[in-house]
Structures are given as structure tokens and as C-alpha cells.
Fold Xylose isomerase.
Amino acid sequence: MTDFFKGIAPIKYEGPETTNEFAFRHYDPDEVILGKRMEDHLRFAVAYWHSLAYEGGDPFGGQTFLRPWFGAGMDQAKLKADAAFELFDILGAPFYAFHDLDARPEGATFAESKRNLEEITDYLGNKQASHKTKLLWGTANMFTHRRWMSGAATNPDPEVYAYAAATVKAMLDATHKLGGQNYVLWGGREGYETLLNTDLKAERAHAGRFLQQVVEYAHKIGFKGSILIEPKPQEPSKHQYDYDVATVYSFLKDFGLEKEVKLNIEQGHAILAGHSFEHELALANALGIFGSIDMNRNDYQSGWDTDQFPNNHPEMALAYYEVLRAGGFTTGGTNFDAKLRRQSLDPADLVLSHVGGMDTCARALRAAAYLFEDGPLEAARKARYAGWEREGAKAMLAQPLEAIEKAVLENNINPQPRSGRQERLENLWNHYL
Amino acid sequence: MTDFFKGIAPIKYEGPETTNEFAFRHYDPDEVILGKRMEDHLRFAVAYWHSLAYEGGDPFGGQTFLRPWFGAGMDQAKLKADAAFELFDILGAPFYAFHDLDARPEGATFAESKRNLEEITDYLGNKQASHKTKLLWGTANMFTHRRWMSGAATNPDPEVYAYAAATVKAMLDATHKLGGQNYVLWGGREGYETLLNTDLKAERAHAGRFLQQVVEYAHKIGFKGSILIEPKPQEPSKHQYDYDVATVYSFLKDFGLEKEVKLNIEQGHAILAGHSFEHELALANALGIFGSIDMNRNDYQSGWDTDQFPNNHPEMALAYYEVLRAGGFTTGGTNFDAKLRRQSLDPADLVLSHVGGMDTCARALRAAAYLFEDGPLEAARKARYAGWEREGAKAMLAQPLEAIEKAVLENNINPQPRSGRQERLENLWNHYL
Amino acid sequence: MTDFFKGIAPIKYEGPETTNEFAFRHYDPDEVILGKRMEDHLRFAVAYWHSLAYEGGDPFGGQTFLRPWFGAGMDQAKLKADAAFELFDILGAPFYAFHDLDARPEGATFAESKRNLEEITDYLGNKQASHKTKLLWGTANMFTHRRWMSGAATNPDPEVYAYAAATVKAMLDATHKLGGQNYVLWGGREGYETLLNTDLKAERAHAGRFLQQVVEYAHKIGFKGSILIEPKPQEPSKHQYDYDVATVYSFLKDFGLEKEVKLNIEQGHAILAGHSFEHELALANALGIFGSIDMNRNDYQSGWDTDQFPNNHPEMALAYYEVLRAGGFTTGGTNFDAKLRRQSLDPADLVLSHVGGMDTCARALRAAAYLFEDGPLEAARKARYAGWEREGAKAMLAQPLEAIEKAVLENNINPQPRSGRQERLENLWNHYL
Amino acid sequence: MTDFFKGIAPIKYEGPETTNEFAFRHYDPDEVILGKRMEDHLRFAVAYWHSLAYEGGDPFGGQTFLRPWFGAGMDQAKLKADAAFELFDILGAPFYAFHDLDARPEGATFAESKRNLEEITDYLGNKQASHKTKLLWGTANMFTHRRWMSGAATNPDPEVYAYAAATVKAMLDATHKLGGQNYVLWGGREGYETLLNTDLKAERAHAGRFLQQVVEYAHKIGFKGSILIEPKPQEPSKHQYDYDVATVYSFLKDFGLEKEVKLNIEQGHAILAGHSFEHELALANALGIFGSIDMNRNDYQSGWDTDQFPNNHPEMALAYYEVLRAGGFTTGGTNFDAKLRRQSLDPADLVLSHVGGMDTCARALRAAAYLFEDGPLEAARKARYAGWEREGAKAMLAQPLEAIEKAVLENNINPQPRSGRQERLENLWNHYL
Ligand SMILES: [Co+2]
Ligand SMILES: [Co+2]
Ligand SMILES: [Co+2]
Ligand SMILES: [Co+2]
Ligand SMILES: [Co+2]
Ligand SMILES: [Co+2]
Ligand SMILES: [Co+2]
Ligand SMILES: [Co+2]
């Protein structure tokens, strides 16, 4: 046990009026909404990489955080795990998520890295056994080490492909061992810096085959969780193959994986790809590949992935509304892929950033759920498309063009536009917020 | 015959050193490159909408151009067609492209619009018969009139779907009649302004079925050209279903159309979607759906679709290199979806903007072709992936993960990165420019 | 009197729980906040151009709205004015704002345009006399007509400069006659499309001299209102001279106008310039040139000026907080430079878009005012800079560098960073929202 | 002497047709253009930070480069200096530029850091004495160490201000000792992450006073070089006070420094601020504050500062044309603030990236100079504004508005627009490229 969080007690729900900074104002885990406890709706996870491993660096500056567990050995790795579960306990977080590299020291060889991973995941498993917090997902970091600089599964060098395959196998084994409910692949280096040196077609084929191998292996070991791809358009690469939801779907279709793989959708990545978060969620739902979310927020003013904690509940409400329309989470959850600003040095900052994020999500979920339950938005949507329920409308979809033209001519069809009522629907939303 | 271009003689190739503004410096139609005449490589088309119909308006200002053919009647439509072919003659353009609305007066009813279309396309057909210029593609404008404000095939009102079906049929008939080599669909209103009032899944299904109906009809009438979709991420809509190449491909796969439909890729739309033009071309080629290009340039500093004439040959060379890698155009070509700046009032501006654009493309093609012919870039690309030709590399793709892990462990695989040589390849390019 | 808004009664405050769409939920004009009525804090104005004159066009489509007052004559202009004041009455708007061109028919000559302006402003003056609504500001439209295509005061042609001078004089006279509290200049065409044909230095000098002439004239006629510049970085021009607050300030300083001219700051323009709205407000306040605001919202996903009604009260609260820090409005106010989406066809849309916008602002103001009154954010800000109140801190600013270096060496100064507490301050904000 | 560049001989000019990758194709230092040697026009500088100190990291990955001089001691610092001058010799670079932190080990105290700086700059001075390469500019790194995380001169903590003052003094002394021709200040941390914790007005005042202190000290020690500010809008900070040229100018005016301080303008920063490079150069020239350039290129597709080597000579030609219009460099030069892509591991990459950049600049300069010398663009610009030379035009600027209105009415002035000829001027440019 560390004393890093000394003096910070577990956070309790105290309601919107509390003046206690160390309390939830909106997140009441046991509140029942749409027939389900809030905790079971939101399924919050803490991200090991941001909350335990991030040192405060940015492209123009180095470490700002001083954490007792920073360092390269197994002792520090265990101290980090101790602190992690202390944080989880304080927050009452039902889940966490991690990369291999977040938790274990990098070894000099693959074998050593693997042994380190086994040792630390045994340690984490013991932690889980005595704490509430479970593993939402595991993932392999295949972007930090210089071996990945030109890609993992899409590397021009087949040795790197092999190393990537072994790495994912090891981490999928570890995730399975820890009862992880999902396994995530994020391809930060699966892209290119310049088309000039890139065989896009070959790399795409390798990426597809790699994913098939992962799915086959997950079946073989009996992993019951979901395999998730996390789209991102760029950064660190100039262009990444998993650009956005539609792009990943096109990829899954080509490799016959659209029933096997779902998506982990991140707010900041949606923004970077020129979409809204709710768009990506709605599209994934329409395509049947919605899985989980990485909750954060990007600064609209910055062109890079800022991974901040969410703080605008009206925006988040639009996202949770789409989660509800998709039927809510099954294996997925709300993972805070969000990091402290590098000036936020204190243990209290680490705790309270999560508290604020959880409250923002809770408030957003509640508003979305009430609106969803009451139904006026869905009623308005339905009314707008009501013409398609009229006789002959759907039949037209089966007709040849010339028959439709004939009907237009004979009936002198001259459609008159009707108001889209956007501002009224926005006002409706604001009634619930 | 108009006197709009009075005093402007047909443009001839005079070589890079000429000081004659009214001459081609780089575009020599008869120059043979990679075994093909330059004209047959580039297959330039003039866009009727920008070059004949655009009045100079922008979101904050109205008409600036004074053209004798502006006006709503059939006489003006014919005068416009006369001027069009005079422009084509001056430029020696082998092709043109148009929307129904560019060429015919809008009627009070669908029937009247259709009769107008038939009359004006007969007129255009006569023009074609006596001129060199042929039709690269036709398309239906389903975005300007208020009936389309909420979409065409994706409209909440099935009457609009019907009207759209009849409109496309009419224009596909017209394109077929005129010997058009392609038929293009661009869905500027096939998207949404707000998700709040949108049934994304239903709209996507209607768009898919619509496209199937179009393809079926094209087969029925014996249209031998290509059906092309032109992706664009946004503008006029906040979000369009045909976002980019990957998105359209996912759509084609879902509706079984990936062998039936190809893409018309526009530089400016690639930029708006967060890609480079060459990326979109390379991806379309990798996916087997490359068709044609809309050549223009967007201002990187502006966030909207500026549709300017290209003037940066190094950038365009990257694009034509991908066209060459894709085997060059078959039915497709280089359509100038580019408009004069609204301050460029004079007939000479209209001519010389095209001359500059054609020269930029010619210069770009020549550089790309020489580099492609000499082969050093392809050799470098091949060398980078040479490892995949080594024994066992491809076999690994068929192995299960655990076998690959075993090999990594047994052989203590520890891949060492090799330089990507980006700057050297950029220098190589500059040697050809 | 028109019957356009038939059946829509004046909007009343009914509180947050009302289910009446035609009621204010948050805007209670008489509620006293920080010692001032809410109406006197917010000073709402309706924009004539968007709410009365906009026809629903966008770059890819024409008119969608059908308004009985559309048309070119004086009768329609008066009908428009009647409808305007009916809208103002329904909303209880204390102010409106307009361009000359919004209200009067354009004449064939300057003289005729001026006579038209005088006639319609007499008519508006009579309206004002019998209604609550007063004029917040007037402005001259020097961007729509083709004569302005290359600029107004910055036009290469001095005749256009002269026409602009006469136009502003006429509209400043009209604004003065109507008791306008401000006069606004927005330079949509005061910029360039290409540097290649632009004498940037000369144009800047002309713009500066023009502004001096306007200020001199305002003094001469005894106009007591504020002269305001509205910054915008681009659109319609590729680059505008009044880029953002800092740019306008540099310009005012160069022409000795920083005490004479203030700023009208628009949310959407702040976004287009790469800033947040609150940044621009805070900077204008720091520079002593804060005047008024154009309230709207831009779509972060679109790269152009969408001019939507605001609907995110947490964002707007950040803006009103800066307004409060600046001491609130004096002659300025909250002008809705916001337009209906072009699919929002109905009279009810026109009313309710304003109702939603007003409620969003009211809710934002209330939250900002409570936070400002309670003081915790200002206390935190003060505490962060408390070191500067310590002995010797300010004295250091008067020392030469070598003395400061000496002190650093002698005292072995080694500053230790302290947490910036960003997330905690964001949580604090959310407590008030 | 190191053997890092073993086998790479000094680069010579061999002309455009050479197939030798290790030769200049366009940069011929002795070629005389507009009466000046090309070397004296371009005044190339190599950036120590990118070319010697950068390890290949990015936000998602660590070191990729393996350089024998990496490490924390004085021996490595000297080895680095040896390699630096070997690189300068190979390139024939007339200048270099560096931050204190690039060249010296960071000490545990300010005193130790200063001693280290003195030792290494003595070493660099000896190098300079025996090599051609001189110091273009020095600068202090006040953004990497955690003490700067909340700003240097704008830090809430006056101790950091003191430390910054001492740091700049030490580095200005060092620059002076080495005969540096300029001293640059770039304020990467002089900005904010959130307005919530920021006293913008106080920080701006501190920044202004700091700059005055620096200027005063430079005068005192007889530093004859230029003091330069390098604008950047954001990154690493969310918002930086030295946003762009216009913003810095407003700041200089407020603190009476517009005659004392000039600008170092970077291509990538211009892009990030929403401008073109040539715009920023033209504006600085118009304002009389043009100093030097940081040459690089940003990827238009990425939203962060990519600092790549330039490779598009048509774009760079627009920039050098503005440099020529400003009279060329005096103390300034062309500093490559450009770094290798992190996959470009080899010594040859480091050399050839500079060779390509130098060639791109040389080619650009040559085109710009020929166009400038021939004069057609300046003639066209002059003709466009010729109206202002007509009688009465300039006199109008001295008249009151009412007199101008009178003239408009009496002469029935009705200005007719004339073509801006943008495309023709773009074609003209392409004739020179
Ligand atoms: Co993520
Ligand atoms: Co992210
Ligand atoms: Co197009
Ligand atoms: Co376009
Ligand atoms: Co405005
Ligand atoms: Co606006
Ligand atoms: Co720089
Ligand atoms: Co930079």
C-alpha cells in the first residue's frame, strides 16, 4: 500500500448541492434509470496509461509529474499497481483498462517482456480478487518502442509482423486470464508518414489477415469478450488505416469480420476525423458494430489529440443518447482515455479529474435517458419519415426507375418541403439538460 | 454563334519559353508519353456549371459576371450552349460535363423540365456532331432547388425519392443519348444538418437501394459507361454519406455494388475529408474502384470547397502518379471542377484559367510519367518490402498466432528498424519536377 | 400589420419546468442578477438580415423560405418592417440591428439608394416610437453588391472608396436619426483573394484613414454611440484585415483610434480565427476595447461561418463570465447574428430559434453571474498569482537583467512548479451550470 | 572528430541534371542573382536542436535515432559540437542556430547550467574560428524543463520570471560572445492551457516588460544583432501570446518596441495560425518588422507543427518573393527549423534532408528573383491601383465624409468593377517556376 493518496477518502454521492469537492454531485451508482443501475449503464473504467503511467510530457517538454512508482523495474511496476487499485477504490470504479507496456517493464527480449507481463498480471489478478474493480479491456502497446516506428502488422519487415503477432497473443492471453471483457486494437502506427514509401494495398492486406488471426486465436482460447478496433484518423501517423467508423467497417467487410469485431469509439478521434462523437456512435449502431467508448474530449481549437476529461454535459448527452439507442453497453463501457493536463501535479488533481468526468457522464446519461424514456425526440423523428409508411412508398423501392418516372409524370408529383425543425429539437434537448 | 470570345483564337502549344499568354506551355496534345498521346492520358473536360452557369455569387455576395446567356429561357440555354462549344473549341477540349440544370431551364413541372432537357440535349447532340468535344459525363443536379433541401434519395418524403428517381432516369437517358462515357452521382444533400431529426440507418438504406436501381436501369438501356460516385464529406450538408473513398467503398460493399460503381475523386473533397488527393486515388486503386477525377484545388487556408484551378504542378504530379499506377483512365478523365474567382470578370479570364489548369496538369503528368517509366520510386518501394519475399514470410500469414509466437521465442526475433528514407524520396521527386 | 405570425402570442417567462414550447424557461427579463435586471444585462437584439432578409440560400442551393415580404420594392420593404416589429414584440426584444441593404431597396444610383434609406428609416423610426424595441446598431452592407467585390475602403479603385464613404455617411446618419446606440463596421470584402494582385500596405493605410474619417464624422454630427469594428478572419475573403481582436487592436494603435473604436465580437468569427469566444472577449477587455457581442455558434465540424443560434449554455457561460469581468455592456448588447437552418421553414421556427437562443444566454448569464458573485474562481486566480504581491516581486520588473541574474545566483533560486488545477476549476464551473 | 558522417564528402553544386544524390542541383552558392551571391541571399542556417539534439520521439513514441553523442555529460556535448560542425562543413552552411539546452548539459542549479553554457560556447567559439560556419542566432530554451510548465516571463510565480531573466541574460551573453547576428525569443509556454486559471492582462504586461528588459540589456552590452520574436499560435500551449505577426505587432506597439524588435517568421507557424507563409512575410514587411525566417513546411493534413523540410518550390517561391520585396535579409537568414521524420535513421538522411531543403529554397529564390527582376507582377499590381494616382484620389483621403458624399452625388459616381485577373497572375508565376 502506498501513501500517495493519503487523506483522500472514497468518493461518495452527495447530490448536486454539495459544496464538497471530493464528492459526486451527479454520479449515484445505485440510482436506477431506465430499469438499470447507473453504474451498470456507464460501466466506468480508469485508463492505466494516462492515470498511472503518463509522466506529463508533451512534444516540447518533459516529465512534470513526480510519482513514486516511476522507474523501470518490477518493484515500481508493483507499486504502480498498488497505487492504481487505491485510485480505483477511491473512485469506486468498476473497471480499468491497460496496455502491456503500462503495467510491465519492457524486457531486453520478447521472452523477458512476456515473463514480466505474466508476473505483473498475476499481481493484478490478485488485486482484482480482493477489489471491486475488474478489467474492461486489455491491449498491446505497439507504437512506443522504436521497433514499431514503421508499423506493427503493417510493417515492411515481416519480423515486426511476427513480433506483433506474438505480442498480441501474449496480451490476449493475459486479458483472458484476468477476465477482461474486451480486447482492443488501436493501430497508431498502422498507417504511413508518406505514401512515397508505402505499399498501401499490401499493408492493408496484412492488417486484415492479422486481425483474422487474432479473432481465430480468441476463439481457440475461448475468449468470450469482444474484439474491438479503435479508429483514429491520424496522430501519431500522418494517416492511419483505421481512420473512422466507416473506414473500419469497409475493412471488416473486406476481411469477413463484420460479425466478429466491434468498435471502441473515442470522442477525440471522432473530432479529429471531422465527425461528431454522436455521429460515429450512430453510424456504428446503424452498421451493427457498436462496442465500447473511450470517453474524453478534444479541444476544438487544437489540431491534435488532447485527451482531456469531458466537462460539457450537453455534448456528452448527445453521445449517451446514441448509446441508449444502440441498446446500451454489453461488454463495453465508458473508459476514460483522458489525461490530466501536465500542470495538474497533485494527487488531488488525479482523483478530481475523474470525479468531474464521471459526474459529467452521469449528468449526461440521466438527461439522455429521460429524453429517451419520454420519447418526444423519437416521436418527432418518426413523424418526419411517416411518409414512408404510406401505401406504395416502400413498394417504390422495388420498382424500376422507369416505373417511378411514369408515376411522377402521371400524378404530376411536385413535392413540397416541410420544416426540419432543427432549432425546435435543439430547444427540446435543452429542456432535458 | 456568339461574339463573347471575340478575338481569342484557339490555343496552341508553343512550349515552355513562349511569352504568349494565350498559348500552352506544357500541354502538347500530341506528345507521346508512356506510349500514349498526352490528350489521351489527360482526357480533359470542361465543367458546364462553373464555366458557363456560375454567376460569381458567394455566401456574402451576388452575381459579378455579366454573360449574355444568363437568363431563364430556352433561347438563353441555346446561347449558352453556343458559347460553351466556342470555349471548348478555343481550348481544344476533348470532353465536357454537365448537370441537367446547367443546360436546361427548370420547368414548372417534372414533365416540362424533362421536355426542356430533351430539347437542349438534342441541341447539344448537334453541337457534338460538328465539334471535336464529346461528353465525359452527365449528372443530375439534385441539390439546388428547394425540393431537395432535405435530401434526394435520402429525403424523409418518399415523393422526393420518386422525383429523384425520375430525375436521374431522365438525365441518364440524356447522357446515354449523347454518348456520355460516364454517369456521375454526387450527393450534396444526401446527408444531414442535424442528427436530431435524422434516421441515419433508413436514409442509408434508401441511398443504397436507389443506387441499385440506377445501376439496374443503366444495364437495361445498354449504357456502357461507368456509374461513378463522387465523395464529399460535407458542404452543403453538415455531414454527407459519401464522405470519402473508404466510406463509399463500405457502402458499395453493403449493397453489392463494388463491381458496378466506381469513384469520381475530387482534389478539394479529398482535402475537406482530411486526406490528400493522392491518398484517395491510391486507396481507390487499391480497392479496385478508381474511375475518374475532378481536378481543382482547395485553399488550405479556407475551410470550404473553393474549387480553384490547380496551379501547383508538384502536388498534381503526386496525383497523376497514382493515376498512372492505377493504369490510367479508361472511361474517366480530368474534369475541371474549378471555377473562376468571382473577381475574374473577363472572357480572357475564363479561357486562361483553363489554359493554366491544363498546363499544370500536363506538366504534372509528364513528371509523373518520367518517374514512373524510369522506375526508381517503385524500385525503392519494392526494396522496402523485400522481406516479404523471403522464405517463410508469407507463410506466416497462414499460421496461428501461437505458432508465430513460438518462432519469435525460438529464434529470439528482435527486429531492427531501417530508415524510411522519406526525405530522400522527396528529393527524388524533385529531381523529376 | 401582417398575419405572418398569426396565432403566436408574445412569449412569456414560465420557468424551467414548463412544457410550453412557446415560453421562456430561463429568460426572465425582470429577474435581478448582480443588481441589474436580466434584460438590462443581456440587451438582446434581433438581426434584421438573418431573421427578415435571409431567403434560405447556401452555396449549393437557392431560396427555401417563402415570406410575403420578399421582393424588390418599397412596399415589400415596409411589409418586412411590419413583420420585423411583430417578431420583436413576440420576443419582447429590447433591440434590433440592421444593414442599410436589409431594410431598403437598392436604388439604381447612390442618390436613389439614399432616398430609399431615408424613407424606410423614417418608417422604422415611427415603428420604434410605438414599440418597445430600439436600435442597438446600424451598419452598411458593403459586401453584397458587385461593386464591392474587390473591397470597399480597400478597393483598388478610388471611386469605390468614395462610394463607400458616402454609403457609411448615409447609414451613420440614419443610425443617428434612429437613436442607434452603436455603429458597426464589418469588412467582409476588406481583405484579399490573392496576395498576387494586392498592395497590402496601401490597402491597410486606406482602411485606417477611412476609419478615422468615420470617427471624425461621428463626432461632428454628435453621435454619442460607440463605433465598433467586427473582426473576422476570412469568409467571404480568403483573408480579411480585421482578422481577430489582436489584429484589430494593432490597427487601431497604428491609426490612433484605440480610444475611439471598440469591438463587436462574434462567437463564430472567434472560432474561425482559431480562438475561443471567451479568449477574444478576455483579450478585448484586457486591451480596453470591449464593446458588444454577436451571439451565435459555429459548427466545430464545418470550416465556414454557420451562424447558428447558440444552444450550449456551458460554453456561453464562459463568454458571459468575461462580459461580467469587463463590467457588462454599456452601449453594447447581445445581437443574435444567427440564422435559421434553411430547412426551418415555418414562422414558428423563426420565433422559437430566438426563444431557444435567449434561454441559452439567460441560463449562461445566470450561472456566470452566480459564480462571479460568489467569487471562488477569482479567488483561485488571485491565489495563483499571489507571489507577485510578495516583497520584491514587482520591483524586479524595474531592474536590469544583470541584477536579476545576480539575485538568482546569490539566492540559488530554483523555482518549484505548482499545480495549475485546471480540472478542479472545470469542476467548479460545472457546479454552477 | 567523429566518424558519424564517414564516407560523405562535402556537397557540391552539380546542376539540375546530375544523378548524384549527394550534390546540389539548384543551390550554387556563388551564382549571382539580382547582384548578390545566392549564398548571401539565402543565408542558410542549420538548427542544432533538430539536426543534432532531436532523438526521434513523438507524442506516442520514444527515441528512434541512435547518435553517439546522445547523453547528459560535457563529453557528449563536445562530441555533438564536433558532429555539428562536420555536418555544417558537408553542407557548406554559412550559419547555424541553437538553444542553450541544445548545446550544454542542464545543471543542477542555475550557476552550474551557466558554467556549462560558458564552457560549451567557448568550445563552439573555437569551432567557429576554424570553420566557415557562423552563428545566425542564439535563443534560450524556456519550455522543456518542468520549471517552465506554466510559462517563463508570464509565469504566475515571480521566481520563474527571475530564472527566465537570468537565463536569457546568460544566453544573450553567449550569443554576443559568439558573434551571433540575432537573438530570438520564442514563447512556447508564454500562453495558457485554460483561461480559467489565467490573468491574461497581468501576463501580457509581464511579457512586455520582460522584452523591454532584454532590449535594454542588449543595448548595454553593445549587442549589434537584431532581437527577434518568433510568433506561434499554439502548441505546446493551447494559446500563445505571440500568436501571429499582427498580434506580435500589437504587443510591440503597446510596449514601445516596434523599432527595437523584429520577427522571425516560420512557415509552419503561419499555417497553424490560419495564414499563408507569404501573408505573414508581406504583413511583417508592411509593418516594418521583418527580420528572419524559420524555413520548414507543415503538413496541411495534420493539425500540429510537423517541422518538415520544405520540398515544394512553387510555395517557397511565393515566400522568397516577399523576402525580396522586403529588400532581402540583413541580419536574418533562412534557418531550417526542420527535422527528419523519425523513421529517417541514417546519417545520409540527415545530410540529404538538408540538401533537398537547400535546393528547394534555391530553386524558389531563383524563380522569385527572375520574376521580381523582370517586373511583370509588380507592374500588374501597380496598374490595378493606378486610379489612386489620378487627380483628386489621394486628396479624398483628407476630406470629411460629407464632402465625399457630395462628390458622389454630384458626379453620380457608379463604380464599375474590373477583373482581378487572379488566374492570369497565377499563370504568370508558373511561367517562372
Ligand atoms: Co482511445
Ligand atoms: Co485519443
Ligand atoms: Co466535383
Ligand atoms: Co468541390
Ligand atoms: Co456578426
Ligand atoms: Co458570422
Ligand atoms: Co521556429
Ligand atoms: Co515549428
